């Protein structure tokens, strides 16, 4: 056994180059995985520390007890507290200080006239709490706001908006407020709370711009006197607080904030990255399998000699697996170290690229130290298992044959099995999509289809390469023909090499199709439901942005060119106990600029206690025209509303519509998310748009867009997501290309004599290089074509299954330009992958190559 | 190097002189039971048939061969290219399986063994010397020699191995890699390895095919000494009459059949015998 171990070790040393690809594949996958885990933990802990530090001086928080959460908003809306309660709190024994905290949305305009932030994280504004220990923000430069119009902004925001102390700019609350920056603040020692922007104003300003009426605050921050614990403080506060108001400890509040960031942002972020680490490792599986398959094929004579001399199958297989373990363990450990390095590097890099993630030591949990190497070793050994078993089955007589050519692949059983699998996959998928819509059935079918593609690869490789390489013969003569035949030599190997790329490309095209479909869906929604000529909105995404001034819609409506201008505001309420978003608007004007489908009842008569509901929601909640529903608002009031209309289409408008009159008593910080404008007959779009733009300039200069522009910008977030997805998938594609390069290198090694012969009979170095390159391009083209096909199919499945399984309708779209780009990138990358192997092949010494 | 098979084919002077009469063949075919009964047989095939391919491409590499290889003797298998001599050796050694008929090593019928038991038999009871690629390139000379023993997890007999190393004259090369040795030295390592486990029989397949004549003589000398001084059994396939002359006996194959046996061969006698086959089937 010692000799066998030694054998594995010395072959590893001798074949270092062969395993470079395997090493890199495992290394990259494990590093990605470890980096993601370590970074997630580090950020989680850093946010925890940051919130803890920032709110260390706050021992208790008094706030509204009722919270209304609507789907898609985990934080929820809390009822405000009366600022007069501060007096009561201050009188509680053991309270050293108490201050009201007013928090709302406020977006600053930078010195370049563009809004700062708003692409995801919230843009906050609030009152600057003068008690420094109760204020989570610390003044770093300048002074606190003293007069109306003076603000403190967090340093990160100031840097991003290029604002200095003394600068005057506009804060959208959403009404534009002229403000002068008088101070810069830090949060928990950082330049800000992540990407969140913060503007602190005087208490009076905050009450004026951020609340519906004075005397209301989001919460009251309380500091305990000496010797009073946070728990004790909360107990004492609870005794004096009125109903509907609660007190929690400062620690609890910090933890809630941390959980919110972790749950909303970090979990999504890390899950997302882990999925891509998984894709990268899946692709690596193929590259590794291929490397070992080739190495085993090339070592057939050596293994056969061992078998002839009496090594049993297990011994030969074990020798190969030992090699695999050595590579796996080294690469996995290196990958772990690399991943930790990447996390550390990103931590350093994020602030540099304007992503102020909190600092702090790297957090290395046992899970992130153990899981990635274990996965790496498992992937590597799993991929090497089949080749190892094949090595064990080597016939002893193979030692005596001249060369062992690996012709595995296109067997009839494989074709039959793959075909059957594909049939089952397609049947399952179609059932899940068309017959009984179910995402699970469709997803299962999609996975089966992937497996079927991999199984059928070697069968398809022959035909595909012949087809793709057809033009090569004519274009490139003998060189092209040789390249094509080389790619055809071992269909199994060609397919396995291409499979890695296929999976990478398939995931890329899946996301491309899904993104394009979402866009098409958005496009269709806008063109179907939006009957206005222009839309006014603020470009924002996620929780950011401040919305539009509710005064803007009436101002636009007064324009001589405009027939209708309707603003859509957003409110929340519990409808019969379930948190729901309400659309606050003028229902009469709404009907003129939005296509609401078939309307039963009358939208004109909603009044202050009327409600309009979509038909789907009405059916779910058993509501009909004339029925009543109890709406509980964040201010604690409960009102009975009567359903006065049921409409057909929910896209853009939402499930519930109430009038402004109905919402007014319960409003908080009012804003509209979009204003739809319809021009009078005979008014040109350009003229009307210019007029609207002029009015809007006075209200914080929001975006004025035509219908088409509005549709496009609604899908803006999708492009951003796609860009990120592409960047992450680049790693998987890189691993696949390393696989191609590796296979080529090994193939060249195998054909040394043959290449020498070709050179001897007059093939130039350039021709030889071209031959290798074209072979690589053919394999890459095969993988890319398969990936595009599979990705398009999976994308279709995803879109159709989502369409059938949920109540929103999706439109399938295949983006030809993007597909062409992916194809081009795949083929070009194939040519790049061949660079090194081709150079090596061309550098062969002719006489030595033949003598070998 | 004289009298290789292609050379023989071009000489047609003795067209009919050496032709095998049907009577000769009849007496040779049963594998000379008289002699094999006299001394114990290390390896034997009976009615061996080996068919390669299917349908139109069928090749009968062995067509009913029965032959025994007596223990303690050096037997050479000769015949023109395609006569089935290598196939005979592979089947007799358990490297390949017969289509019909039986092959035995000692009393063990190889047809009864599964892959694993066949492997263990090769490891423990048979030694091999191939024409080329005899050594594992990544192992040292010493490791190559003890490879079958290491595979079996046996220590072997250190004195015997030590003696073998001296016989093949490679004591100063034990730590070297095969690539650092000449072809002749490599083949001597292979011979040492073949005898390392004291197998019942050593099969050598064209052991001198890739060597110059001096190195070839050395290797053949080693095989001969192993038989005569150490009472080992060697079966060697060769097409070189000079190599065959080192054997105690030569068996001749043609077209997958055993056609003759010759005791105490010399190079000339063997060459003459070969010429007779060659002209018979031009």
UniProtKB/TrEMBL annotation, chain A:
Membrane topology reported for the UniProt record: Multi-pass membrane protein
Transmembrane segments: 265-297, 326-350, 370-389, 420-440, 446-468, 494-518, 724-748, 777-799, 819-838
Stretch forming the signal peptide: none
The organism's place on the tree of life at top rank: Bacteria
Record InterPro entries: ABC3_permease_C, MacB_PCD, Macrolide_Exporter_MacB
Domain ABC3 transporter permease C-terminal intervals: 275-395, 727-844
Annotated protein name in UniProt: ABC transporter substrate-binding protein
Organism: Streptomyces mangrovisoli
């Amino acid at each position: 056994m010692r000799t066998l171990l030694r054998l594995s070790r010395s072959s590893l040393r001798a074949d270092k180059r062969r395993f470079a690809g395997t090493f890199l594949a495992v290394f990259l996958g494990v590093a990605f995985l470890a980096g993601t885990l370590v970074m997630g933990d580090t950020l989680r802990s850093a946010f925890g520390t940051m919130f803890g530090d920032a709110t260390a001086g706050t021992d208790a928080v008094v706030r509204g007890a009722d919270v209304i959460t609507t789907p898609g908003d985990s934080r929820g809306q809390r009822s405000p507290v009366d600022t007069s309660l501060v007096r009561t709190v201050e009188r509680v024994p053991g309270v050293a200080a108490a201050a009201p905290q007013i928090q709302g949305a406020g977006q600053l305009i930078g010195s370049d006239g563009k809004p700062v932030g708003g692409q995801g994280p919230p843009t906050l504004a609030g009152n600057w709490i003068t008690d420094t220990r109760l204020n989570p923000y610390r003044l770093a430069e300048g002074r606190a706001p003293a007069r109306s119009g003076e603000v403190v902004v967090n340093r990160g925001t100031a840097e991003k908006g290029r604002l200095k102390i003394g600068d005057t700019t506009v804060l959208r609350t959403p009404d534009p407020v002229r403000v002068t920056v008088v101070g810069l603040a830090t949060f928990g020692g950082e330049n800000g709370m992540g990407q969140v922007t913060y503007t602190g104003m005087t208490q009076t300003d905050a009450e004026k711009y951020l609340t519906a009426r004075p005397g209301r605050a989001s919460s009251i921050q309380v500091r305990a006197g000496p010797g009073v614990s946070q728990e004790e403080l909360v107990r004492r506060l609870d005794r004096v607080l009125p109903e509907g108001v609660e007190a929690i400890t400062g620690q609890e509040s910090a933890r809630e904030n941390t959980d919110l960031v972790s749950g909303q942002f970090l979990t999504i972020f890390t899950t997302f990255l882990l999925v891509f680490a998984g894709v990268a490792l899946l692709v690596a599986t193929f590259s590794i399998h291929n490397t070992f398959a080739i190495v085993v094929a090339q070592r057939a004579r050596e293994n056969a000699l061992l078998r002839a001399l009496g090594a049993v199958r297990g011994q030969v297989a074990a020798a190969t697996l030992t090699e695999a373990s050595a590579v796996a363990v080294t690469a996995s450990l290196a990958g772990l170290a690399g991943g930790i390095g990447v996390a550390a590097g990103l931590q350093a890099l994020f602030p540099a690229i304007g992503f102020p993630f909190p600092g702090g030591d790297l957090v290395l949990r046992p899970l992130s130290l153990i899981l990635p190497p274990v996965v790496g070793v498992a992937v590597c050994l799993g991929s090497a298992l089949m080749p190892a078993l094949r090595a064990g089955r080597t016939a002893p007589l193979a030692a005596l044959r001249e060369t062992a050519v690996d012709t595995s692949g296109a067997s009839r059983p494989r074709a039959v099995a793959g075909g059957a699998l594909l049939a089952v996959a397609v049947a399952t998928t179609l059932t899940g999509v068309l017959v009984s819509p179910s995402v699970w059935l469709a997803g299962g079918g999609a996975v089966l289809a992937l497996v079927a593609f991999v199984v059928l690869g070697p069968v398809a490789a022959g035909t595909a390469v012949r087809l793709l390489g057809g033009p090569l013969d004519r274009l490139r003569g003998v060189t092209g023909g040789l390249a094509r035949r080389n790619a055809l030599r071992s269909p199994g190997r060609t397919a396995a090499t291409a499979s890695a790329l296929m999976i990478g490309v398939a995931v890329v095209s899946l996301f491309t199709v899904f993104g394009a479909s979402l866009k098409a869906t958005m496009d269709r929604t806008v063109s179907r439901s939006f009957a206005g000529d222009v839309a006014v909105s603020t470009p924002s995404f996620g929780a950011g942005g401040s919305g539009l001034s509710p005064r803007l819609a009436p101002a636009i409506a007064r324009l001589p060119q405009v027939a209708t201008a309707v603003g859509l505001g957003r409110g929340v309420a519990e409808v019969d106990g379930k948190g729901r978003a309400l659309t606050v608007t003028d229902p009469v004007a709404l009907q003129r600029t939005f296509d609401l489908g078939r309307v039963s009842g009358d939208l004109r008569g909603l009044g202050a206690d009327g409600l309009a509901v979509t038909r789907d929601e009405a059916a779910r909640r058993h509501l009909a025209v004339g029925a009543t529903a109890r709406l509980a608002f964040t201010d604690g009031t409960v009102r009975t509303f009567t359903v006065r209309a049921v409409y057909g289409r929910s896209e853009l408008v939402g499930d519930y519509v109430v009038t402004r009159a109905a919402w007014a008593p319960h409003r908080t910080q009012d804003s509209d998310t979009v204003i739809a404008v319809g021009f009078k007959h005979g008014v040109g779009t350009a003229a009307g748009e210019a007029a609207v733009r002029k009015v809007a300039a006075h209200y914080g200069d929001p975006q004025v867009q035509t219908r088409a522009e509005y549709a496009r910008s609604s899908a803006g977030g999708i492009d951003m997501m796609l860009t990120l997805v592409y960047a992450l998938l680049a790693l998987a594609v890189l691993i696949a290309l390393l696989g191609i390069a590796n296979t080529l290198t090994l193939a060249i090694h195998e054909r040394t004599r043959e290449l020498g012969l070709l050179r001897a009979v007059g093939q130039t170095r350039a021709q030889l290089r071209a031959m290798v390159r074209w072979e690589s391009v053919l394999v890459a083209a095969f993988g890319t074509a398969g990936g595009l096909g599979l990705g398009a199919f999976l994308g279709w499945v995803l879109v159709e299954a989502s369409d059938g399984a949920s109540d929103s309708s999706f439109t399938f779209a295949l983006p030809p330009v993007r597909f062409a780009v992916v194809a081009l990138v795949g083929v070009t990358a194939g040519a790049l992958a061949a660079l090194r192997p081709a150079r090596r092949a061309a550098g062969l010494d002719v006489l030595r190559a033949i003598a070998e | 190097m004289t009298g290789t098979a292609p050379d023989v084919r071009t000489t047609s002077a003795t067209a009919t002189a050496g032709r095998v009469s049907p009577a000769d063949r009849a007496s040779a075919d049963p594998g000379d039971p008289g002699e094999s009964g006299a001394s114990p047989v290390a390896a034997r095939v009976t009615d061996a048939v080996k068919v390669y391919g299917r349908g139109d491409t069928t090749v009968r590499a062995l067509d009913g061969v029965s032959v025994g290889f007596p223990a303690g003797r050096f037997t050479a298998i000769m015949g023109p290219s395609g006569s089935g001599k290598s196939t005979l050796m592979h089947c007799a050694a358990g490297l390949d399986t017969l289509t019909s008929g039986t092959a035995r090593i000692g009393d063990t019928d190889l047809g009864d063994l599964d892959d694993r038991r066949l492997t263990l038999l090769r490891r423990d009871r048979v030694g091999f010397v191939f024409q080329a690629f005899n050594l594992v390139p990544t192992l040292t000379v010493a490791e190559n020699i003890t490879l079958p023993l290491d595979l079996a997890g046996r220590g072997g007999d250190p004195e015997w191995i030590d003696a073998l190393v001296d016989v093949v004259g490679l004591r100063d090369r034990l730590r070297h890699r095969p690539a650092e040795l000449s072809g002749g030295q490599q083949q001597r390592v292979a011979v040492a390895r073949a005898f390392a486990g004291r197998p019942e029989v050593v099969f050598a397949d064209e052991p001198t095919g890739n060597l110059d004549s001096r190195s070839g003589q050395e290797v053949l000398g080693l095989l001969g000494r192993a038989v005569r001084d150490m009472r080992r059994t060697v079966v060697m396939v060769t097409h070189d009459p000079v190599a065959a002359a080192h054997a105690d006996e030569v068996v001749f194959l043609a077209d997958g059949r055993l056609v003759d046996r010759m005791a105490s061969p010399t190079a000339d006698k063997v060459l003459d015998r070969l010429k007779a086959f060659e002209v018979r089937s031009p």
